[in-house]
Every structure is written in structure tokens, then in C-alpha cells.
Amino acid sequence: MPRLADVAKTIRSKNAGVDKITFDVIFPDLASYEKVRDSGTLSRDAVCRVFGIEPGRISDHVSFDAARAIKFTIYRRIPSGSPGDADVFGAQQYGPLLDLELPD
Amino acid sequence: MPMPISITHTRSANRTLRIVCPNGHLGFAPIKAGSFRIGCEAEPDLICADSGSCDVGPGPLGGDTSSSPLGWQTEDLETMLVASRRLGIPMIVGSAGDTGTNSRVDLFVGIIQELARKHRLAKFRIGYFYSELDKDALSRRLDSGEPVFGLDGRAPLDRETLDSTERVVAVAGIDPYVKLLDQGADVIIGGRSSDCAIFAAPAIRQGFPAALAYFYGKILECASFCCEPYGAKESVLGEITMDDIKVAAMLPEQRCTIASVAGHAMYERANPFYEYFLGGHIDMSECRYEQYDERTVRVVGPRYVPAAELRVKLEGSGKIGERYVGIVGVRDPYTIANIDEVTGWARRQVAERLGDGGYELHFSIYGRDAILGPNEPRRTAPAHELAVVVQGIAPTAAMAEEVAMIATRQMFYARLPQVKGTAGGVAFLLDEVMQASPAYRWTLNHTMRVSDPLELFPCCIVEAGL
Questions:
Q1: Residues B187 and B232 in one domain
Q2: What CATH number is associated with residue B426?
Q3: Would strands A20-26 and A58-64 be described as parallel, antiparallel, or unpaired?
Q4: Residue B392 DSSP one-character state
Q5: Total tally of structural domains belonging to chain B
């Protein structure tokens, strides 16, 4: 089975303000974008399963056709840069998404 | 041979406003000179760059410092100032010195004055405004009973949170920039402000539609982040008309594509369709992107939605304490499997000596879950070796050092019942703890009602040059 990292062009995470981290998964073409979008691999439920979070932790979850992107945003446990946070920019939170398996 | 860019051609009769943006975070990493020079040859009307970000964490705002080195800030300001005076066009810098506090505005104004002397520039006007909000003003607001609402799920501001806050900045919209341009400023140094306002202000002042103007700012503010292939700190050129905006890459090896510009529209924000600022927001859900030429993208269709009430965003940082850091490594698989017992032992030793409160102790376990914490799906399968970073935080440096030192050293002596290695439970990179910057936290991410978009942002003009 292909992994998300094999199909997506960009998989990234970054602060969206001080209390949220946003994730962008951008595809190289319309076909791969629509296939992943419709497969549910990155649905709200799937995101909750990957990160072990409750649905309420997701503030936004959208499909953005113009950019061929699936984008979601989660609330941080603690604000960026407060003691106990080890990712001030939120830039390495996307790691677990790379290995997500896609239907053939 | 670089590909052609239509908007560097001679201007049409249509009214346009062109802005070059050389850097998405002025001072954080230096401007690349080559693409900036190309941008300056394209008849720009202004040179604009944002210099601020919350991304650097609460430390710089709380401690009133910059995260960018003074040398790089000076270099970027020099690059922009020399070009702006040579071309006779204004330059605008927003959110001076990473945080946009008063001291950072004064710092940048001073640098501009110094550069004017160094280059023997003819007389020009520096406009600047402040964004810091006095804690007493916020205190009076609390006394009045009018709520200061929290953003992103935060509770309304209370007395305790305000008391624990060191410094607050308010995030300006376009208004102080418009006012200073009206007063004839050639160079503007802004306090904390919305990134897009820096670019939207001159466009709106000249009568371009607000929806396009704010979108124009949103696309330009990170410079070459809206281009491909990836390459930061390169210049981009934007053009706004009454009907559309266009953005072009200035580095010959880069292009703006529909994917790169649309992709950038969603960068660093919770939702790709809405951008909020003082006075309203833009709705980008109906934006249409078109490849205008090989390296230029044209966009139409953003909508401007004015706010029902003026609410200014506030950012505040509060000090938690002084901080020391220790680092240890672990290779024994049994110890790795029981690493929580080890940190628990160390924590109890600190408590035995210093009590349960009055300090903070944090363990980041690299190789297991330091980066994602409880969100890490693989935290039950740690690596064959771990690094544990210990942070001790306390009101005094001496106490923070002791917290970090006890915790770091006691991991060496951790008592695990079946451990084979009895000569030391961890590997020391350094048998010491190191002083780090003080620990701060974001205390305010709130909004406050204002009756006038200028009321928190006093504007000033000074002359510079000969």
C-alpha cells in the first residue's frame, strides 16, 4: 500500500498563532488530491486516531481545492514556547502523517 | 535566460501600485541581494517588509529583546533604506525587531538615523508608531467590567493572568500606516501590526479595494514563500489594480504558480479562507487563481467583511522564572523501558530537598516523545538510545540551578530494581547544568474593544539625513 509520503508533494506543520498548530498536506495533481480527500485517510476521525486526540482538539478541517490541499488545525496542549513545549515553531508535528497508508 | 515577467514591462495606462517585498521576517535571516535588485528595477512604488512574528516564542516579548541579531537587522534595513532613498519611494517595516515593542521601534528608528548619516542621505522623514499597551490601561478595562475576550479557546482575561504578565503589545491594522503616509513619511517603522496591513495600507490609501488590498498583503508578506521551488529571503513583486492582484517571483530560478500562491494563502493560519485583522476580515473562499505568465499569478475574488465592532488583538508574555538545563543520555534497554521511573525518582529527589512547589521541573525525552508529547503514536516504541533534557525553572537563578542539578544528577543514581548496570544510570554529555534564557509563557492571546483604530497606536514623525 502506498504511504501518504509517497503521494503528497508537501506535508508540513507550523504554528497558527500561539495556541494552535496547523497541518498542510498538498498534492501534486488534482487526481491524487481527490483520491486522498475522498478516501478518508485524513478525515477528522483519522486525524484524531493518528494523534490520539479528541475531536474537540481540531479547530479547523478543510479541503482547499485551489491549492490541492487538505488542511487541519489542532489546539496545542500548552502555548508555543512555554516550558514543556519542545517545538516552539510547531514545525515537526507532521511526522506521524508520513507513514499513513493509502488504499490502493 | 530567465523567463519573462509581464508586470516588469512598462506600465499600462491603468492605475496600479507595485510593492517589492524582500524578506518575510526582516532581520531573522538576511535579504538576498540579487533578486531584490531585480525587484527594484521593476518600477516599484514602495518597498515593504514585516519584521515580526509570534513564532519566536514568548521570550523576546517578555524579556523585551529581539530574536534576530542586531547585525542582520541593520544589514536588512540598510539594504531597504539605500534602495528606497535612491528610488525616491517609501519603505515600510512592520512589527519592528520581532516583537514590535516600543524599545524595538526606537531601536529601528535609531538604526535608520545612523544609516542616514553613514550614507550621507538627503533629508527625509521617518514615521513611527508604538504598539505597547500599558498594563494599567488593561487593569482599568477589567475594573470597568468590560470583558477582554480570549482567542482560540482561552478564557476572558482575569486579574491573576494580567498580574502575571510582563509586557503586552496590541496588533495594529492599517490606520497608523495610513496616517504616517498622509504626514509625508518616507520611511515607516511600525510597532506590532498585522502582517498584511503593511502592504494593504498604502493600497487602501490610494483607493484600491480593501478586499484586494488585504489579500495583496497576505500574499506578499512572506516574500518568496509564495514561490517555487522553495527558497526563502528572495524578493517578490506585487501589483494591485482596481480589479486584481498579481505577484511575481524576482529570483530568475523561481516562479509563482497557482499551487505555490494558493499554497501560501493557507500558510501559518488555522483556515485558508479567512484572514482577520483590526476592523474586519477577508473571505478568500471564492478566490480564483490564474497563471498570468510563466512566473506570475493573478488573483481575483477575495471579499472584505467589515467587523461589527472594532476589537484589537493583544499579545502578552509573562515570566515564569530563571532557567537551567541539563542533558543526559540513556543506552540500557531496561532503563529506556522504565525511563518514567527514572524521571519520577529524580523528581522525588528534588521534592525531598526543595518541597513540592515554587519551581518547575520538565523532562523532554528525545527518542521517545519529546516533540509530540502524548500525541506521539510511537511513544511505546522508543529508540535504542534516548536523550533526556532537564529544565529547572525557579524564581532565582540559584534555585533554578539547584532544581536542574538535582534532577540531572539523580537520574544517574536512579534506583531501578532489576538494572544490571549499577555504576551509573545515565550517560552525561556534560556533568553540569547550563543557564538558559528565562522561561516565559504566552499569557495573552485576547481581543479588546476600541472605539478608534488609532487609539492605542501613537504616531510620531522625525527627520533624518542631511
A1: yes
A2: 3.30.70.360
A3: unpaired
A4: E
A5: 2
Co-location of B265 and B402 in the same domain: no
Query: Quick one: B115 and B217 in the same domain?
Result: yes
Contacts of B56 in chain A (CB under 8 A): 81, 88
Q: Taking the model in full, what pTM does it have?
A: 0.93
Pair B234, B91 in one domain: yes
Domain check: are B369 and B225 in the same one? no
- The residue range of the domain holding B419 is 320-441
What pLDDT is recorded for position B53? Answer: 87
Residues B298 and B180 occupy one common structural domain: yes
**Looking at chain B, how many residues does it have?**
466
Q: Please indicate whether, in this complex, the C-beta atoms of B258 and A83 are within 8 angstroms of each other.
A: no
Cis omega (within 30 of 0) on the bond before A28? no
Q: Tell me if A93 and B320 make a contact (CB, 8 A cut-off).
A: no
Burial per residue of B284-296, b for 16 or more beta-carbon CB atoms within 10 angstroms, e otherwise: beebebeebbebb
The per-residue pLDDT for B279 is: 95
Say if residues B319 and B438 touch (Cβ distance below 8 Å): yes
Whether B151 maps to a domain, the answer reads no
Tens digits of per-residue pLDDT, B268-307? Answer: 889 999 999 999 999 999 999 999 999 999 999 999 999 9
* Mean pLDDT value across chain B: 95
What is the set of domains in chain A, with CATH numbers?
4-79+90-96 (3.30.70)
Phi, psi of B198 (to 5 degrees): -60, -35
Instruction: Give me the mean pLDDT over the B329-343 stretch.
Output: 96
Interface contact flag, B272 A84, Cβ < 8 Å: no
Percent of chain A exceeding pLDDT 70 equals: 100
| Angle between the N-to-C axes of helices B33-40 and B70-87, in degrees from 0 to 180, rounded to the nearest 10 | 20
Q: Which residues of B touch A53 (CB under 8 A)?
A: 375
* Residue B407: strand, helix, or coil: helix
Please tell me the predicted confidence (pLDDT) of residue B1.
Answer: 46
Same domain, B253 and B355: no
Domain check: are B187 and B282 in the same one?
yes
* Contact between B246 and B43 (Cβ < 8 Å): no
Has residue B162 been placed in a domain?
no
Considering only CB atoms, which chain A residues are within 8 Å of B389? Answer: 86
In a domain, B149, yes or no: no
Q: For the segment B138-194, what is each residue's pLDDT rounded down to a tens digit?
A: 999 999 999 999 999 999 999 999 999 999 999 999 999 999 999 999 999 999 999
> Residue B39 falls within a domain, yes or no?
yes
Residues B17-57: tens digit of each pLDDT:
999 999 999 999 999 999 999 999 999 999 999 999 888 89
> Which chain A residue is nearest to residue B388, measuring alpha carbons?
A86
Q: What is the pLDDT of residue B183?
A: 97
